[in-house]
Design goal:
Layout lengths: L2 E6 L3 H12 L4 E7 L2 H8 L6 E4 L8 H10 L5 E6 L5 H9 L3 E4 L4 H12 L4 E2 L1 H10 L2 H6 L14 H11 L4 H8 L3 H15 L4 H10 L9
Parallel strand pairs: 1-2, 1-3, 3-4, 4-5, 5-6
Length: about 220
């Protein structure tokens, strides 16, 4: 299956470079590119896309606002945030806005291609080397200031097995990897993930990762 991708970055050379290297990867088709959030929204009204690679720091409409508006649309593509900065508040806000992943622009092209495939298939992409530091940098008060309740109490609703699964999600494991680690069927893991999201009132796996770190269930530096 071919994944249709839109590139959004205010630097033309970066867009050209990404187009060149990603089109060399099997199963990826670049269907368009845009230089800011406004242009991206307009483009997505004209082309069918599965995944948007989104820069965060752009003129006019930045990547956070664009991500929020894209994800509000019916049948919206997934968004993968690419940033130059290892600790970027905008990238964190992009995850909160509905992005399904966060990677640095110097990530090897094979890993970016794999990330595109993962989020197209419904997984989150949270690179441990960057996301653990990112989430450790922004404390629980950020969620509280945003109007979200402190998450710690809600974790009490989870069963011991669901706690285990949440910890492994937060460490970046896919459903298949969690199944192998816990010696469970992959279908059973999917059921556990669904129950975790429902019990905690979460939208997706990315929010589950954020909550796990913010609540202290998993700490930065753990592997």
């Amino acid at each position: 299956m071919t994944v249709r991708v839109v590139l959004v970055d205010d630097q033309e050379m970066i867009r050209m470079g990404l187009r060149m290297v990603l089109e060399s990867q099997p199963g990826i088709e670049i269907v368009g590119d845009a230089d800011d959030g406004d242009s991206a929204l307009e483009l997505l009204g004209q082309v069918e896309a599965d995944v948007v690679l989104m820069d965060v720091r752009m003129p006019r409409m930045n990547g956070v606002e664009a991500t929020l508006r894209i994800r509000e649309r019916e049948g919206a593509p997934e968004v993968l945030i690419l940033t130059t900065f290892d600790l970027d508040e905008y990238a964190y806000d992009g995850l909160q806005a509905g992005a399904s992943g966060f990677l640095l622009k110097d990530t090897p092209v094979e890993d970016i291609a794999a990330a595109i495939s993962h989020i197209h298939n419904g997984d989150a992409v949270v690179a441990p080397s960057t996301t653990k530091r990112l989430l450790d940098h922004f404390t629980r008060s950020r969620l509280e200031l945003a109007g979200n309740p402190a998450p710690g109490g809600r974790l009490e609703e989870l069963t011991p097995r669901e706690h285990e699964v949440l910890q492994l999600i937060a460490r970046g494991m896919s459903n298949a990897e969690i199944a192998a680690h816990l010696v469970l069927a992959e279908g059973t893991v999917k059921v556990h993930v669904g129950r975790i999201l429902t019990k905690l009132g979460l939208r997706d796996r990315v929010q589950a990762v954020v909550l796990a770190y913010e609540s202290g269930l998993v700490e930065a530096g753990e592997h």
